[in-house]
UniProtKB/TrEMBL annotation:
Cellular compartments annotated: Membrane
Residue ranges, annotated region (Disordered): 295-318
Organism: Streptomyces sulfonofaciens
Protein name as it appears in the record: Transporter
Gene3D superfamilies: Cation efflux protein transmembrane domain
Alphabetized UniProt keyword annotations: Membrane, Transmembrane, Transmembrane helix, Transport
A molecular function (GO) term: monoatomic cation transmembrane transporter activity
Compositional bias segments (type: Low complexity): 295-306
Record keyword Transmembrane present: yes
Pfam families in the record: Cation_efflux
Transmembrane segments: 67-87, 102-124, 150-173, 179-201
Start and end residues of each Cation efflux protein transmembrane domain: 2-208
Predominant localisation class: membrane
């Protein structure tokens, strides 16, 4: 919401500055801020749609709506923001003209830097609570909730873009050549496309389906095995159904002389331990089996998926 409010105000001021000055950098930045405003609306819409209840057609719910809308953000940023800036910059370099009323773009850019700084500061504060010990680059790569990384990259790109626009306008004023305004616009286009590509790669990975983080996987494994009723994990899979919803599927080893009632009680207890340790583990499927040391010693099957079920990975007697 902070990013949306800042971008709407900035977009309006940039369009006014463009009308009075004719600066292509200002027009590119205005379109950039307008695209960013649309992106924030998309993120809010995705968050709202993801809260819908599961249906027979979509039994695991709509948590991935947030990933889909974040991917749309990268497309909007690439097509509307980046490509438009490249086109406008090329036209300005090819057909340069002097800036009129230079104080308009300079004043608006300074205002925009302050407003974007406020939005960026808010995003950093929100993300710091979730980042933990990860670096910022690691946080952006590993975050399962797409909104904060998207806003962080958008705001960071906006601040750099504003500095590029300010540099282009400043050089155009100092040299008397409008070509520098076009060069600044081209740099803004390259910047926006680069950020859009990073967002596309990260959100594509989320759309394909990412496993839980190493820390969460460790907590699940420790919660599963109690050493008494569940003696070991034969194999396990995790999958994010949404940023705050995790699917856990595992084949677990139980004692060969346990009764059906004892196995059922062990599974129920294991599910409770997992949910207590990792609250976002909402969907859990546990399959009991008997562990076979002989098959485990046979080694992995090259044809099987990594750690998945197969002649050697599925170390069990049926």
């Amino acid at each position: 919401m902070a990013a949306l409010g800042a971008n709407l105000a900035i977009a309006a001021s940039k369009f006014v500055a463009f009308v009075f000055s004719g600066s292509s950098s200002m027009l590119a930045e205005a379109v950039h801020s307008l695209a960013d405003s649309g992106n924030q609306i998309l993120l809010l819409l995705g968050g709202r749609k993801s809260k819908r209840a599961a249906t027979p057609q979509h039994p695991f719910g709509y948590g991935r709506e947030r990933f889909i809308y974040a991917f749309l953000v990268s497309i909007v940023l690439f097509s509307i923001g980046g490509m438009f800036a490249l086109y406008e910059g090329y036209e300005k370099v090819k057909h340069p003209h002097d800036l009129d009323s230079w104080y308009w773009p300079v004043g608006v850019l300074i205002f925009a830097i302050i407003a974007e700084g406020f939005s960026f500061r808010t995003a950093i504060k929100e993300a710091s609570e979730l980042r933990g010990t990860f670096s910022w680059a690691q946080f952006i790569r590993r975050a399962k909730a797409p909104e904060l990384p998207v806003v962080l990259l958008e705001d960071f790109g906006a601040l750099i873009g504003l500095l590029l626009a300010l540099g282009g306008v400043g050089l155009a004023l100092l040299t008397g050549s409008g070509v520098w305004d076009g060069v600044g616009t081209l740099c803004i286009g390259v910047l926006l496309i680069s950020i859009a590509l990073v967002l596309a790669v990260e959100t594509k990975s989320l759309l394909l389906g990412e496993a839980a983080g190493a820390e969460e996987v460790g907590r699940i494994e420790r919660a599963l095995v109690d050493g008494d009723t569940v003696t070991r994990i034969i194999h396990m899979r995790t999958l994010h159904l949404g940023p705050e919803e995790l699917l856990v599927a595992a084949k677990i080893a139980v004692r060969h002389d346990d009764t059906a009632a004892e196995v059922a009680a062990a599974i129920n207890a294991a599910e409770e331990r997992i949910r207590s340790s990792v609250p976002i583990a909402r969907v859990i499927y546990l399959e009991p089996d008997i562990y076979s040391a002989e098959e485990a010693a046979a080694g992995p099957d090259p044809a099987a998926t990594p750690g998945g079920p197969g002649p050697a990975n599925d170390h069990s007697d049926h």
